[in-house]
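Usage

Read records sequentially. Each one opens with the input sequence:
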Amino acid sequence: MAKFKIKRGDSVKVIAGDDKGKVGKVLFVYPKTAQVVVEGCKMVKKAIKPTEENPKGGFINKEAPMSISNVKKEQ
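and closes with the structure output:
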């Protein structure tokens, strides 16, 4: 498990991938897999089952983890 300079709540800029150039806040850091979840970046469509709150089910958009090497800390 490595130690990273990027922490939860930091403002980062995406330097590689489909969201290159976007700036967002770090929501989660996964040190074991060297991944971060950045607010508004790498959005995926996820199917959800019907529940009491949402009887129809359907789809939601949420952020997926990306490699920590694809982001850099903003000053």
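Summary fields computed downstream for this record:
- The chain has a mean pLDDT of 95.
- The first strand starts at residue 11 and ends at 14.
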